[in-house]
Amino acid sequence: MTIQEEIRQLCRDKNAVIMAHYYQRPEIQDVADFIGDSLALAQQAAKTEAKIIVMCGVHFMAETAACLCPDRKVLIPAPEAGCSLADSCQAEDLRRWKEEHPGYMVVSYVNTSAEVKALTDVVVTSSNALKIINQLPKDANILFGPDKNLGSYINDLTGREMTLWNGACHVHARFSVEALIHLKHDHPNAPVLTHPECKKAVIELSDYVGSTAALLKYVKTHTNNEYIIVTESGVIHEMQKACPGVTFILVPPEITEGVGCMCNECEYMRMATLEKLRDTLRDEINEVHVEPEVAAKAVKSIHKMLAMS
Ligand code: 13P
Ligand code: SF4
After folding, report:
1. CA of 236 to the centre of ligand 1 (A)
2. Does ligand 2 lie within 6 Å of residue 84's CB atom?
3. Which residues contact 64 (CB under 8 A, 6 or more apart)?
4. Which ligand minimizes its atom distance to the CA of 85?
């Protein structure tokens, strides 16, 4: 039996469902029951009837599933998989920020801990941030965190002046503007598709800005021969499957302090492997627990997001 067959057999035996983000390793995506962006994974978790959810993603994704499904076992193959963006905003710091801004609503990106979500009025993802913020009162004072790039993009689109937390994703914030300009010059017919976690200078050079799922939809519904993709490289697996023969060009990150990492992979997202997934499911280890009082508060802001999406 291959390891993939072993994993599928375990899913059947245990009534388990495997969910994977598009930034997971290709072999994990291929063995999953469901692949999605952050919003789709939350929506899927909210409606699954499986007894066990194995979340192949980073910790906040598993926590979101655990808040939504307190009666299910939520397992994560790589419990050490954090997120630089989520880590930039600790609950204590958010609490202080709120105290400094009485009367403000708190809108938090889904890339946050359950403790932060418990202090939040409504959660958003990159798929629904614009839609949700457009539904908030025009005169609302809003604290938006932790992604300053997404927040500034939404401010520009809506004309709002949300107060932004100073956080960013280390993968999306480091794409090289210079390299993108060169690639656009060399591939003038390739649309530039960009994730809104990227910095403004990159967004301004783009033809289309959207969440991981929106970028995928774009390539599935257009007929270009090549695209320049400015997001984590894991998404190329699904793009290439949907559009064989099309060329997807990746933008390299900036080289800082003379040390260049030419890869645009999120190291946290790559921590899950097939072996870890198999062992986690087989032994039912790495269960994600959220304190019930925290989960009860966090789930309100997550449900609000799902209702407004
Ligand atoms: P989406 O899944 O909303 O596109 O967000 C990307 C991301 O960085 C997830 O950590
Ligand atoms: Fe966090 Fe960025 Fe990795 Fe997404 S890609 S999990 S935002 S560090």
Report:
1. 14
2. yes
3. 41, 42, 45, 110, 114, 117, 302
4. 2
Q: In CATH, which of 3.40.50.150, 3.20.110.10, 3.40.50.10800, 3.40.228.10 is domain 85-164?
A: 3.40.50.10800
DSSP code of residue 258: T
Give 45-100 as a DSSP string. HHH---SEEEEES-HHHHHHHHHH-TTSEEE-S-TT---HHHHTS-HHHHHHHHHH
Q: Does the pLDDT value for residue 257 go beyond 80?
A: no
Residue 4 CA, ligand 2 centroid: distance in Å: 26
pLDDT in tens, 93-138: 999 999 999 999 999 999 999 999 999 999 999 999 999 999 999 9
Q: Report pLDDT for 256.
A: 63
- pTM for the predicted model, two decimal places: 0.95
Ligand 1 centroid vs 38 CA: distance in angstroms?
5
Which residue among 125, 194, 264 has the greatest number of ligand 1 atoms within 8 angstroms of its CB, and so is best to mutate? 125
Quote the ligand 2 centre to 9 CA distance (angstroms): 30
The CATH classification number of 3-81+270-289 equals 3.40.50.10800
Arithmetic mean of pLDDT over the chain: 96
| Ligand (nearest to CA of 169) | 2
Q: If one looks up domain 172-265 in CATH, what number appears?
A: 3.40.50.10800
What digits encode the pLDDT tens for the residues 226-243?
Answer: 999 999 999 999 999 999
* Cβ atoms of residues 248 and 268 within 8 Å: no
Q: Is 83 in the pocket of ligand 2 (CB under 6 A)?
A: yes
pLDDT digits (tens, 9 = 90+) for 262-302: 578 999 999 999 999 999 999 999 999 999 999 999 999 99
Closest ligand 1 atom to 211 CA: 4
